[in-house]
Sequence to fold (119 residues):
Amino acid sequence: MSYVSNVVKGTCPNCNKTKVFASNGNPLLFKMPKMKMKCDNCGYSFHRETGFYFGAMYMSYALTVAEMVAVFVLGLLFGWSFMTMFILVVITILLLSTFNYKISRLMWLNLFYDKDEQE
Ligand SMILES: [Zn+2]
Fold:
Protein backbone atom coordinates (compact mmCIF):
# COMPACT_ATOMS: atom_id res chain seq x y z
CA MET A 1 0.00 0.00 0.00
CA SER A 2 2.96 2.26 0.65
CA TYR A 3 4.03 1.97 -3.00
CA VAL A 4 0.69 3.25 -4.31
CA SER A 5 0.42 6.05 -1.73
CA ASN A 6 4.02 7.18 -2.40
CA VAL A 7 3.40 7.29 -6.14
CA VAL A 8 0.05 9.10 -5.81
CA LYS A 9 1.35 11.61 -3.24
CA GLY A 10 4.72 11.98 -5.00
CA THR A 11 6.70 11.78 -1.78
CA CYS A 12 10.18 10.44 -1.00
CA PRO A 13 10.14 6.59 -0.90
CA ASN A 14 12.51 6.61 2.08
CA CYS A 15 10.86 9.01 4.56
CA ASN A 16 7.47 9.84 2.91
CA LYS A 17 7.87 13.46 4.05
CA THR A 18 9.00 15.63 1.14
CA LYS A 19 7.93 15.83 -2.50
CA VAL A 20 10.18 14.28 -5.17
CA PHE A 21 9.33 17.01 -7.71
CA ALA A 22 10.14 20.68 -7.06
CA SER A 23 7.68 21.89 -9.71
CA ASN A 24 4.68 20.33 -11.45
CA GLY A 25 5.35 21.67 -14.93
CA ASN A 26 2.69 22.87 -17.34
CA PRO A 27 1.99 21.23 -20.71
CA LEU A 28 0.32 24.42 -22.00
CA LEU A 29 3.51 26.43 -21.37
CA PHE A 30 5.83 23.55 -22.48
CA LYS A 31 7.34 23.37 -18.99
CA MET A 32 8.44 19.94 -17.79
CA PRO A 33 8.31 19.04 -14.08
CA LYS A 34 11.58 19.58 -12.21
CA MET A 35 12.88 16.76 -10.05
CA LYS A 36 14.95 17.37 -6.91
CA MET A 37 18.42 15.79 -6.75
CA LYS A 38 17.82 14.35 -3.29
CA CYS A 39 15.34 14.41 -0.44
CA ASP A 40 15.35 17.61 1.65
CA ASN A 41 14.49 15.64 4.78
CA CYS A 42 16.54 12.41 4.71
CA GLY A 43 19.02 13.02 1.87
CA TYR A 44 17.87 9.99 -0.16
CA SER A 45 19.17 10.43 -3.73
CA PHE A 46 16.44 10.54 -6.37
CA HIS A 47 19.09 10.30 -9.10
CA ARG A 48 20.19 6.75 -8.43
CA GLU A 49 22.63 6.43 -11.31
CA THR A 50 23.19 7.59 -14.88
CA GLY A 51 20.31 6.47 -17.08
CA PHE A 52 18.24 5.26 -14.12
CA TYR A 53 15.02 6.78 -15.50
CA PHE A 54 15.47 5.19 -18.93
CA GLY A 55 13.11 2.43 -17.82
CA ALA A 56 10.53 5.02 -16.72
CA MET A 57 10.16 5.84 -20.41
CA TYR A 58 8.52 2.43 -20.95
CA MET A 59 6.10 3.08 -18.10
CA SER A 60 5.27 6.45 -19.63
CA TYR A 61 4.71 4.73 -22.98
CA ALA A 62 2.37 2.17 -21.38
CA LEU A 63 0.40 4.95 -19.64
CA THR A 64 0.12 6.91 -22.89
CA VAL A 65 -1.14 3.87 -24.81
CA ALA A 66 -3.70 3.15 -22.06
CA GLU A 67 -4.95 6.76 -22.24
CA MET A 68 -5.13 6.64 -26.03
CA VAL A 69 -7.12 3.38 -25.90
CA ALA A 70 -9.45 4.89 -23.27
CA VAL A 71 -10.21 7.89 -25.52
CA PHE A 72 -10.62 5.58 -28.51
CA VAL A 73 -13.12 3.38 -26.62
CA LEU A 74 -15.03 6.52 -25.54
CA GLY A 75 -15.09 7.53 -29.20
CA LEU A 76 -16.56 4.17 -30.18
CA LEU A 77 -19.18 4.38 -27.42
CA PHE A 78 -20.28 7.89 -28.42
CA GLY A 79 -19.99 7.25 -32.17
CA TRP A 80 -17.40 9.97 -32.90
CA SER A 81 -15.85 10.20 -36.35
CA PHE A 82 -12.29 8.94 -36.85
CA MET A 83 -10.98 12.50 -37.22
CA THR A 84 -12.67 13.64 -33.97
CA MET A 85 -11.19 10.64 -32.14
CA PHE A 86 -7.74 11.35 -33.58
CA ILE A 87 -7.83 15.02 -32.54
CA LEU A 88 -9.08 14.17 -29.05
CA VAL A 89 -6.38 11.48 -28.64
CA VAL A 90 -3.69 13.99 -29.60
CA ILE A 91 -5.09 16.66 -27.24
CA THR A 92 -5.36 14.11 -24.42
CA ILE A 93 -1.78 12.86 -24.71
CA LEU A 94 -0.42 16.41 -24.97
CA LEU A 95 -2.32 17.55 -21.88
CA LEU A 96 -1.35 14.44 -19.89
CA SER A 97 2.34 14.50 -20.96
CA THR A 98 3.64 16.13 -17.76
CA PHE A 99 1.39 13.91 -15.64
CA ASN A 100 2.77 10.80 -17.39
CA TYR A 101 6.34 12.06 -17.00
CA LYS A 102 5.89 12.57 -13.26
CA ILE A 103 3.92 9.43 -12.48
CA SER A 104 6.21 7.15 -14.52
CA ARG A 105 9.32 8.47 -12.77
CA LEU A 106 7.65 8.11 -9.37
CA MET A 107 6.61 4.53 -10.24
CA TRP A 108 10.15 3.71 -11.37
CA LEU A 109 11.78 5.32 -8.32
CA ASN A 110 9.46 3.50 -5.91
CA LEU A 111 9.75 0.20 -7.82
CA PHE A 112 13.49 0.07 -7.16
CA TYR A 113 13.40 1.43 -3.63
CA ASP A 114 14.98 -0.96 -1.15
CA LYS A 115 14.49 0.04 2.47
CA ASP A 116 17.41 -2.11 3.60
CA GLU A 117 19.80 -0.42 1.20
CA GLN A 118 22.42 1.62 3.04
CA GLU A 119 24.24 4.53 1.49
ZN1 LIG B 1 13.25 11.43 2.31
